[in-house]
Design goal:
- By secondary structure, the chain is an alpha+beta fold.
- The protein has one domain (6-124).
- The chain is built from two helices and five strands; from the N terminus they run H-H-E-E-E-E-E.
- It has helices at 6-45, 51-74; strands spanning 77-80, 85-92, 95-102, 111-114, 123-124.
- Strands 1-2-3-4-5 form a five-stranded antiparallel β-sheet.
- Helix 1 (6-45) runs antiparallel to helix 2 (51-74).
- The radius of gyration is 18 Å and the shape is elongated.
- It starts with 5 loop residues before the first helix and ends with a strand.
Protein backbone atom coordinates (compact mmCIF):
# COMPACT_ATOMS: atom_id res chain seq x y z
CA UNK A 1 0.00 0.00 0.00
CA UNK A 2 1.34 3.41 -0.97
CA UNK A 3 1.36 5.99 1.81
CA UNK A 4 0.91 9.63 0.77
CA UNK A 5 1.84 12.85 2.45
CA UNK A 6 -0.76 15.60 2.07
CA UNK A 7 1.62 17.35 -0.34
CA UNK A 8 2.06 14.22 -2.50
CA UNK A 9 -1.70 13.66 -2.64
CA UNK A 10 -2.34 17.30 -3.54
CA UNK A 11 0.25 17.11 -6.33
CA UNK A 12 -1.53 14.05 -7.73
CA UNK A 13 -5.03 15.59 -7.66
CA UNK A 14 -4.96 16.96 -11.26
CA UNK A 15 -4.14 13.48 -12.57
CA UNK A 16 -6.75 11.87 -10.32
CA UNK A 17 -9.36 14.45 -11.38
CA UNK A 18 -8.65 13.64 -15.05
CA UNK A 19 -8.96 9.88 -14.50
CA UNK A 20 -12.16 10.30 -12.47
CA UNK A 21 -13.66 12.41 -15.25
CA UNK A 22 -12.94 9.63 -17.74
CA UNK A 23 -14.41 7.06 -15.34
CA UNK A 24 -17.61 9.06 -14.94
CA UNK A 25 -17.97 9.54 -18.71
CA UNK A 26 -17.41 5.80 -19.25
CA UNK A 27 -20.05 4.95 -16.64
CA UNK A 28 -22.58 7.21 -18.37
CA UNK A 29 -21.86 5.55 -21.73
CA UNK A 30 -22.14 2.12 -20.11
CA UNK A 31 -25.53 3.05 -18.69
CA UNK A 32 -26.67 4.18 -22.13
CA UNK A 33 -25.54 0.87 -23.68
CA UNK A 34 -26.91 -1.37 -20.94
CA UNK A 35 -30.30 -1.77 -22.63
CA UNK A 36 -28.68 -2.43 -26.01
CA UNK A 37 -26.33 -4.99 -24.50
CA UNK A 38 -29.25 -6.81 -22.89
CA UNK A 39 -30.99 -6.97 -26.27
CA UNK A 40 -27.74 -8.26 -27.82
CA UNK A 41 -27.64 -11.11 -25.31
CA UNK A 42 -31.29 -11.92 -25.94
CA UNK A 43 -30.69 -11.79 -29.71
CA UNK A 44 -27.65 -14.04 -29.42
CA UNK A 45 -29.69 -16.59 -27.50
CA UNK A 46 -32.14 -16.61 -30.41
CA UNK A 47 -29.45 -16.92 -33.07
CA UNK A 48 -28.46 -13.37 -33.99
CA UNK A 49 -28.72 -9.62 -33.68
CA UNK A 50 -27.09 -7.05 -31.50
CA UNK A 51 -23.46 -8.05 -31.98
CA UNK A 52 -22.28 -4.46 -32.48
CA UNK A 53 -24.00 -3.19 -29.32
CA UNK A 54 -22.60 -6.10 -27.33
CA UNK A 55 -19.07 -5.41 -28.56
CA UNK A 56 -19.37 -1.68 -27.79
CA UNK A 57 -20.65 -2.47 -24.30
CA UNK A 58 -17.76 -4.88 -23.68
CA UNK A 59 -15.24 -2.26 -24.86
CA UNK A 60 -16.72 0.33 -22.51
CA UNK A 61 -16.46 -2.10 -19.60
CA UNK A 62 -12.81 -2.80 -20.49
CA UNK A 63 -12.11 0.95 -20.66
CA UNK A 64 -13.68 1.46 -17.25
CA UNK A 65 -11.61 -1.37 -15.80
CA UNK A 66 -8.46 0.12 -17.30
CA UNK A 67 -9.20 3.56 -15.84
CA UNK A 68 -9.89 2.22 -12.36
CA UNK A 69 -6.63 0.28 -12.69
CA UNK A 70 -4.82 3.57 -13.36
CA UNK A 71 -5.98 4.85 -9.97
CA UNK A 72 -4.95 1.62 -8.27
CA UNK A 73 -1.48 1.82 -9.84
CA UNK A 74 -1.11 5.32 -8.38
CA UNK A 75 -2.07 3.96 -4.95
CA UNK A 76 -5.37 5.86 -4.89
CA UNK A 77 -8.47 4.06 -3.60
CA UNK A 78 -11.68 4.63 -5.58
CA UNK A 79 -14.60 4.61 -3.13
CA UNK A 80 -17.58 5.82 -5.18
CA UNK A 81 -17.80 5.92 -8.99
CA UNK A 82 -20.76 8.29 -9.14
CA UNK A 83 -19.45 10.86 -6.68
CA UNK A 84 -15.86 10.60 -7.86
CA UNK A 85 -14.82 9.84 -4.27
CA UNK A 86 -11.25 8.72 -3.61
CA UNK A 87 -9.02 8.10 -0.62
CA UNK A 88 -5.25 8.44 -0.29
CA UNK A 89 -3.73 6.30 2.49
CA UNK A 90 -1.62 8.46 4.79
CA UNK A 91 -0.04 8.45 8.24
CA UNK A 92 -1.37 10.59 11.06
CA UNK A 93 -0.13 10.28 14.62
CA UNK A 94 1.60 7.00 13.75
CA UNK A 95 -1.44 5.26 12.29
CA UNK A 96 -2.83 4.79 8.79
CA UNK A 97 -5.71 7.13 7.94
CA UNK A 98 -7.32 8.11 4.65
CA UNK A 99 -7.07 11.53 3.06
CA UNK A 100 -10.45 12.01 1.40
CA UNK A 101 -11.42 13.98 -1.74
CA UNK A 102 -14.27 13.98 -4.23
CA UNK A 103 -15.05 15.70 -7.51
CA UNK A 104 -16.46 19.15 -6.86
CA UNK A 105 -14.15 19.87 -3.93
CA UNK A 106 -11.23 22.26 -4.19
CA UNK A 107 -7.80 21.86 -5.72
CA UNK A 108 -6.34 20.62 -2.44
CA UNK A 109 -7.32 17.98 0.07
CA UNK A 110 -9.27 19.32 3.02
CA UNK A 111 -10.48 16.13 4.74
CA UNK A 112 -9.27 12.91 6.34
CA UNK A 113 -10.91 10.06 8.23
CA UNK A 114 -9.98 6.91 10.11
CA UNK A 115 -10.01 3.76 8.01
CA UNK A 116 -13.00 2.39 9.93
CA UNK A 117 -14.95 5.67 10.01
CA UNK A 118 -15.51 6.09 6.27
CA UNK A 119 -16.92 9.21 4.63
CA UNK A 120 -19.26 9.95 7.54
CA UNK A 121 -16.24 10.35 9.82
CA UNK A 122 -14.51 13.02 7.70
CA UNK A 123 -12.56 15.56 9.71
CA UNK A 124 -10.95 18.77 8.40
CA UNK A 125 -7.18 18.59 7.93
Amino acid sequence: MKIFTVEEANALLPTVRNILGRIQRARKRISAFRHGAKKAVEGAEQGGGGLLEGLQYAKLLMDLTSQTGELEELGVQLKDFNRGLVDFPSLRDGRVVLLCWQIGEGDELEWWHDVEAGFAGRTPL
